[in-house]
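Project standup — Tuesday

K.O.: blocked on the structure for the chain from last sprint. Re-posting the sequence here as requested.
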Amino acid sequence: MSTGKTNFRWVIVAMLFLSTTINYFDRVLLGILAPDLGVSLGWNEQQYGYIVFAFQLTYALGTFVMGYVMDRLGTRWGFALAVFLWGMASSSHALARSWIGFAIARMGLGVGQAANFPASIKTIAEWFPARERAFATGLFNGGSNVGQVLAPLLIPVILMLFVSWQYVFLFSGLLSVLWLAMWMIVYRTPDLSRFVNQEERDYIRQDDGSVEKMKVPWKRLIFYRQTWVVALGKLFADPVWYFYLFWGAKFLHAKFGVNLSGLAIPLVTIYITGYAGGIAGGAMSSWLLKKGRTVNFARKITMMVSALLVLPVMTVPFQSSIYVSVALIALAAAAHNSWSANIFTVASDLFPKNVVGSVIGFATTVSAIAAMITSLLIGYALNKAGTNGYVFPFVVASFGYLIGIIVVHRLSPNLEAVSLRSE
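H.V.: unblocked you, prediction finished:
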């Protein structure tokens, strides 16, 4: 006789947290090593922009495909395939000897890493009722910050032990292999998992009827207004996050002369604060739902607060204090993660579980295309204007979220779930 429901769904969140941590650890390595590699390999800012563009190109194309793959293969095998690909691609950076070599390696990394968020959001939709999804998303999405915290802490240690930067990328590939082994051991859907009892299954399914379960061809998704709510909600935010990710360390080096050994404290501060923001944003949204507020109110009010908290980041290029600059970027990082936890959850609010992967994949493709364009513009601005070129991206970053919440509200004033009809 059962003594109560199991809570294995939180173990699944922990697995998603680890995958996102490894994903961003892999992704941020080059940004942290870039100031030193740029000198030793002779990159200029424009060429570094091309390297970033190469990753974002395949990431954009990959998310469109990988979301569909997750819905077709399921999260267990689809996610396993993606992590294997990105682990091999991350290790391949060790073979690069020029900016072109790094661009090729980044293209492979983009293909594999494109699956992380479509797979993770689909998994959350499969394992959690609506009232817990934003909080669970905030928890696993915090891995994006923890990965960026670990990178500046571990890189100096790896370089001290092995001297060569190549071992940094080989270590990241090893992390992917270890995660993959754990995933294949523990993961099944709730209906098939031996770690889940019937009480937990019933709890997970409590609001399965709130969104229709009818299947829909993925090509039809782009014709739904709700798809564009998610896509444009990400478009106005994701390019900003890529700017922090790929140019944050370079900005601190260019503006304040911070070298590799001095990056740890500023980056840890920024991304730990960012992690706290993601949890807070998810918790705020979930708390409002538990208090009886509508999904529309809970998600949008949290996103509006997030958008307002980003605004002060526009002053960063004009600050003379590194402490103030880091504090403002950290606040913006927290607000971004709060925003992300909610816009990801909106996808599962609006669509049935069997197409959530495709929706997130398409939305991420749209936002990644925007990020590709901004990367080229940032590279061009910095190549022409030096440190003064950072004014443009910081000002754009400050207003992106505010424009985003206005667009989301105009597109869907009530966040009504999609009505899928058979053809």
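K.O.: great, moving the ticket to review. The chain has one domain: 9-195+214-411. The mean pLDDT is 87.
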